[in-house]
Automatic annotation (TrEMBL):
<feature type="transmembrane region" description="Helical">
    <location>
        <begin position="137"/>
        <end position="158"/>
    </location>
</feature>
<keyword id="KW-1133">Transmembrane helix</keyword>
<dbReference type="GO" id="GO:0005765">
    <property type="term" value="C:lysosomal membrane"/>
</dbReference>
<comment type="similarity">
    <text>Belongs to the TMEM192 family.</text>
</comment>
<dbReference type="InterPro" id="IPR029399">
    <property type="entry name" value="TMEM192"/>
</dbReference>
<protein>
    <recommendedName>
        <fullName>Transmembrane protein 192</fullName>
    </recommendedName>
</protein>
<feature type="transmembrane region" description="Helical">
    <location>
        <begin position="52"/>
        <end position="77"/>
    </location>
</feature>
<feature type="region of interest" description="Disordered">
    <location>
        <begin position="205"/>
        <end position="230"/>
    </location>
</feature>
<feature type="transmembrane region" description="Helical">
    <location>
        <begin position="170"/>
        <end position="195"/>
    </location>
</feature>
<keyword id="KW-0812">Transmembrane</keyword>
<feature type="compositionally biased region" description="Basic and acidic residues">
    <location>
        <begin position="205"/>
        <end position="228"/>
    </location>
</feature>
<feature type="transmembrane region" description="Helical">
    <location>
        <begin position="97"/>
        <end position="116"/>
    </location>
</feature>
<dbReference type="GO" id="GO:0005770">
    <property type="term" value="C:late endosome"/>
</dbReference>
<dbReference type="Pfam" id="PF14802">
    <property type="entry name" value="TMEM192"/>
</dbReference>
<keyword id="KW-0472">Membrane</keyword>
Length: 269
């Protein structure tokens, strides 16, 4: 009795397996060529177009600082060019012009920061996780520096009458010092960021997953090291794994849709 059940179960299993194989449309359908799959997997390298934004924001910042120095020296401290300054500024107070220019510059830096963040998010989605983490802190520093500079300017401008009562034009000198220090720190951060971007664009690397596979394939060791290394922390390991999983999910989803589209084209052809 038990042998009959076993044989019947085996027959049913074979039948189910045959039916599932016959019902699978991918097995009887045309196979996707190897060249088509490689063209889908290989993506053309996209350069990071943020280096020109660094040049623009640096130029605007230098122009603003030069104008602030000129206006402060000729229109704020000195009284010899009062009529010329009033005519050039169309009756607007020189202090108001400097503050309005600072607000406009901060808006430009904010737009620059959003532009850079957008492109770095795209770089992260394309699998360049190490470069994203390398520039994650430095790319946001210009906006932080300008925001801190705005706060310091408000601290100086608010009690300007008290400061100037003790030392003549003390608030003006402090204002110029803050603006020049802000320019120095911002230019240093922008130059360091631009160097990273230029190296990244010139190197034209593959996504991190592909680079790791190549490095492990060229190495003599046949296994890869996973887990903690010297100097690694739990947060870094978890963050890297989460970024890698997110990239692989997106890559597999795009790759599956393209393979299905190629298969459909071959079926129709």
């Amino acid at each position: 009795m038990e042998s009959e059940r076993t044989s019947a179960y085996g027959n049913n299993t074979n039948v189910d397996f045959t039916q599932s194989t016959d019902d699978d449309p991918l097995i009887d359908g045309p196979l996707v060529s190897q060249d088509a799959l490689e063209s889908v997997i290989k993506r053309e390298f996209q350069k990071l177009p943020t280096h020109w934004a660094v040049s623009v924001i640096s130029f605007l910042h230098v122009v603003y600082v030069v104008l602030c120095i000129v206006i402060t020296v000729f229109c704020w401290i000195s009284d010899e060019h009062t009529h010329e300054c009033t005519a050039a500024l169309q009756g607007i107070d020189s202090k108001t012009v400097i503050l309005l220019g600072k607000v406009a510059l901060w808006v430009m830096v904010f737009i620059y920061d959003r532009f850079v963040q957008h492109h770095h998010s795209a770089v992260r989605r394309r699998g360049y996780l190490d470069f994203y983490r390398l520039t994650r802190g430095i790319k946001s520093l210009p906006l932080l520096i300008h925001s801190a500079g705005n706060a310091l300017i408000l601290i100086v401008i608010a009690p300007s009458s008290l400061l100037d009562a003790n030392v003549k034009n003390l608030s003006v000198y402090l204002l110029l010092a803050i603006i020049c220090l802000e320019l120095l720190l911002t230019v240093i951060c922008l130059l360091r960021y631009a160097v990273h971007v230029v190296k990244f664009n010139s190197k034209k690397p593959h996504p991190d997953v592909t680079e790791e596979e190549r490095s492990h394939g060229c190495s003599s060791e046949g296994h890869t090291e996973t887990g903690f290394r010297d100097g690694s922390s739990l947060e870094d390991v978890v963050e890297k794994q989460a970024d890698l999983i997110d990239y692989l999910k997106q890559h597999n989803s795009v790759l599956s849709r393209r393979i299905l589209a190629l298969t459909a084209q071959q079926i129709r052809g």
